[in-house]
Predict the structure.
Amino acid sequence: MPAYHAPLDDIRYLLNDVHDIGQLSALPGFEDATPEMIDEVLAGGATFCEDVLFPINQSGDAEGIALVNGEVKTPTGFKDAYTRYTADGWTAISAEPAYGGTGLPEMVRFVMEEMLCSANLSFSMYPGLSHGAYSALMSHGSDELKSRYLPKLIDGTWGGTMCLTEAQAGTDLGIITTKAVPTADGAYDITGTKIFISAGEHDLTENIVHLVLAKLPDAPGGTKGISLFVVPKFLPTESGGLGARNGVTCGSVEHKMGIKASATCVLNFDNAKGFLVGEPHKGMRAMFVMMNGARLAVGLQGLGLSEVAYQNALSYAKDRLQGRSLTGPKNPSGPADSILVHPDVRKGLLRIKALNEGMRALAYAVGIRIDIEHRHPDAAVRQDAEDIVALMTPVVKAFLTDKGFENTNVALQTLGGHGYIKEYGIEQYVRDARIAQIYEGTNAVQALDLVGRKLPMEGGRLVRRFFELVKGDVDAAAQVDGLEDFAKALGASFYQLQKATMLLAEKGFANPDEVGAAATEYLQLMGYVAVGWQWLRMATVSRQKLAEGAANARFHEAKLKTARFYFSRVLPETATLLTAIQSGSASIMAFAADEF
């Protein structure tokens, strides 16, 4: 049977030593969010994930959800777990106190999200979608919509969804056909069908608040004609209770490869009463609040599954006796050595470890900047944070989910035949991880967003700011004994990223296919460099801690060893990516359709 233990030592190290979580308590509204208080909250979250959610993960996968007469029944234990989840206040963790939230930094929810995804990804989808709906309404809803819906979303009594996708549209939201017709009472009749709607129907909450993209009768074409509407399953009464059932029903649920305990629904809207969020035809602006948050959350899904897969693969490798070490028996009194003595097994596990710890550091670097972006009194500091968050959002989403899926496969391979059967749990992580590369915009779409929108944004200001941060840390580390090799390795890959950036800027004007052909490799290249940047920061911190005589010396020594593995065995992959980018689009675009 699999096991999960929240990596609190690594989490505390990143929050306290690398990213300085203490700075958040200096921000307006976060005065009580001290490192000690945050640590206590996260320790409680770890216990909840380990003791309540993880035990129903495998059983939830095996049982799945059931659609009976248009109603979804979640697996055994899910409703009880959700009741405890809301009673413990986790749905309110970073929400505004004015509407019943606890007002903690977004960074705290960010860390909790990773642990939730490791413990039970399917369960995490339900409150995760609700938080996204909360964020969109908080940013763009009217005061009336906020007062009516936010308290219920925050306390978990009601759930939320985001309804974008249609069968004929997919990622191309400009061609959606869901209609919104104004009515005499100031509301709108919403008619259309949405597919792939996570948490679209379930029995965990008494009501579900759908945020639906639709087009008004006078809408211009494309995405400029999209509006956003609140469409509740049950219409609220004036007193805040449940009124009449609205015209939204679950037509079917998807039978999926993974996340089987998460209800993925086809929703039919038949003259359902909806309420406009924000301005007419400006729905994408509001929905992007939810979508960008969801993209970062999906990146954490890749990390969370990679972490739990690693823990179980490592445990198996230590206990599994098979073969002898190439340099002589390491367990001479036993029939064989553990498979951990074999270089290839070690290499796979170390790759997961190095990527997990580096990706966690990168994700948290983005998470803490979200709070700075929203709360810091200095406009210039807010802008710098916003730039890094915007640039790194597609990288976190795509790089962490690509590597998460790769890592769960390496973990499965570590177990050999046992990895392929259900009892050991790894095969579920592989199946669950696969969707993360697809939803909330496929990773190819994230790559196009990075090279087509984020790189040229504000005259290249975002990428210049990122380059300044990397260069500053590389230059500083190059002057420190023991860090020169790390700085040299990162500097070489950083130069390759700069070279690729200039190449795309030059070729893109003449032939946009050059950008499209290179986008995925470019995002991977930036991901490796961004993770390397975080490893350089961690190596700098751990070296200093050792110099100061830290009590947990073995922890910091392991950090430096892992950093060396990353810089010597993982980061060099950037050279291959640059070569592919330099090869251009000609060999890709030369084929006619009938030549494939």
About this structure: The mean pLDDT is 96.
